[in-house]
Design brief:
Blueprint: E1 5-18, E2 21-34, E3 38-42, H1 49-57, E4 64-69, E5 72-73, H2 79-89, E6 90-94, H3 105-116, H4 121-134, H5 150-161, E7 168-172, H6 180-195, E8 199-203, H7 207-212, E9 215-220, E10 223-226
Parallel strand pairs: 3-8, 3-9, 6-7, 7-8
Antiparallel strand pairs: 1-2, 1-4, 4-5, 9-10
Helix pairs in contact: 3-4, 3-5, 4-5
Length: 227
């Protein structure tokens, strides 16, 4: 089933408590992301960008409000069901890559399928190989992360995010550790995936990368102020 509004946040609050102290990271956030969008979340450090991504991925849960994705309320899912749902529907690309240093590029790209026990091992290996070829690393299958450049490691992370053919790709500062040239190549890859039907949402401090998105969502002090 296809959804026009794929991601829907309604009256989203997030309050963190440390002892007697409280910090409200999100305040009554309302947001719709349509299927097939390519959107950037922008704003100063500490404004709630990553917190909002954590709500969308189910890594964290809201204090109040709802998170509906593909017609399902993920904020009320039990942990085991949520983990399975996330593995199937969302690919996450982190700023610091988070590759396993003792695994090859090919093995890292297979991990989400291994965790989900998707298909046979031979099938997983073939899918991971194709995804690495898609990001231009077909000749680096047996390389360890330490044998790859920062840009190559980030491409492995993107290949890994595609493992279970998710409908959404989330990037939390996905080019934050890359030079401008490599950043441009990375966006070209995200744009290509968007052209293939993936909905892409990413946080960025890069003005150039934000300009390339079809939509900018600006946050300030835990609220969406534009977009």
């Amino acid at each position: 089933m296809r959804f026009l509004t794929l991601i829907e946040l309604r009256d989203l609050d997030k309050v963190y408590k440390t002892g007697k102290l409280e910090y409200q990271a999100l305040k009554k956030v309302n947001l719709n992301i349509e299927e097939g969008e390519l959107a950037a979340i922008v704003g100063p450090s500490g404004c709630g960008k990553s917190t909002m991504l954590n709500m969308i991925t189910g890594i964290d849960r809201p204090t109040a409000g709802s998170v509906t994705i593909g017609g399902e309320r993920i904020d009320s899912m039990k942990e085991d069901r949520l983990a399975a749902w996330r593995g199937k529907n969302i690919g996450i690309v982190f700023q610091f890559f988070q590759l396993f240093p003792t695994l090859t590029a090919h093995e890292n790209a297979m991990l989400p399928m291994d965790f989900a026990k998707k298909g046979k091992v031979k099938e997983r290996a073939e899918i991971a190989k194709k995804n690495l070829e898609l990001v231009g690393l077909g000749d680096k299958l047996t390389n360890l992360p330490s044998e790859l450049s920062g840009g190559e490691q980030q491409r492995v992370a993107i290949a890994r995010s595609l493992a279970n053919d998710p409908m959404i790709i989330i990037g939390d500062e996905p080019t934050g550790n890359l030079d401008s040239k490599t950043e441009g190549r990375m966006f070209d890859l995200l744009k290509k995936l968007n052209g293939q039907g993936k909905t892409i949402l990413y946080v960025t401090h890069s003005k150039e990368l934000a300009k390339k998105a079809k939509r900018n969502i600006k946050m300030l002090d835990g609220e969406i102020v534009e977009g």
